[in-house]
Write a structure and sequence with these properties.
The protein is mainly alpha-helical and 222 residues long. The chain has a single domain, classed as Glycerol uptake facilitator protein (Up-down Bundle). The protein has eight helices and no strands. Helix 3 packs across helix 5. The radius of gyration is 20 Å and the shape is globular. 45% of the residues are buried.
């Protein structure tokens, strides 16, 4: 249960920050910086407990990677979705009523933006938090937060910069996006997460470069 609680808390603060800055903050560097920063600190806070996914696409990637039990996959997603719903209620209480204009999404542009940066996010998570070569590092939270920061700056005006089905649900409920476009986020985010995990598994697969001796060489007398 402690894993699910950690996922709930981290996702709540991520979505709360997305909602509050997405509605009230002016068009500037404030929103991407705040979102990247809160994700970074929450990753450091919960990484040792739950792995600090805070994102169903990352949970899917971790499952494909083999670092999340099948029995935990659905509870992780439920905890993340529940946290997003509670965060939406908190944002509505704190910021509403506020004028909101939905993002005018173009299907192809938004889909590609969400797919590419969800791929980047999950790829970074897997390589910094689960790879043997980076085991024990202290930069994983910074790398993950900065990936979302970069994505928000790069394509935030194209897709809203969700890279996370839980965030997509929240911004849709808040009116930043429309319900008719929710499928773009869901499909692109899950596909991006799955693709990143498959690529990770492929490039991190052990390769045999030298023969392995199956028995000791025969003893030879001088």
């Amino acid at each position: 249960m402690k894993k699910y609680i950690a996922e709930f808390i981290g996702t709540f603060f991520l979505v709360l920050t997305v909602g509050c800055t997405g509605i009230a903050a002016p068009a500037s560097v404030i929103a991407p910086l705040a979102i990247g920063a809160v994700l970074m600190v929450m990753v450091y806070a919960g990484g040792h407990i739950s792995g600090a996914h805070y994102n169903p696409a990352i949970s899917l990637g971790m499952w494909i990677r083999g670092r999340l039990e099948t029995s935990d996959l659905l509870p992780y997603i439920v905890a993340q979705a529940g946290a997003a719903a509670l965060a939406v209620l908190a944002v509505r209480f704190l910021r509403m009523p506020a004028p909101i204009t939905p993002i005018p999404l173009k299907f192809g542009h938004a889909f590609l933006a969400e797919f590419v940066f969800t791929f980047a996010l999950v790829y970074v998570v897997l390589n910094t938090a689960t790879a043997e070569g980076t085991s024990g590092n202290s930069f994983y939270g910074l790398a993950i937060g900065f990936t979302v920061l970069a994505g928000a700056f790069a394509v935030g005006d194209i897709s809203g910069g969700a890279f996370n089905p839980a965030v997509a649900f929240a911004i849709t409920w808040l009116g930043i996006s429309t319900w008719s476009n929710i499928w773009i986020y869901i499909v692109a985010n899950f596909l991006g997460g799955a693709a990143a995990a498959l690529v990770f598994n492929m490039i991190n697969r052990p390769t045999q470069t030298t023969p392995i001796a199956t028995e000791a060489p025969p003893y030879k007398t001088p």
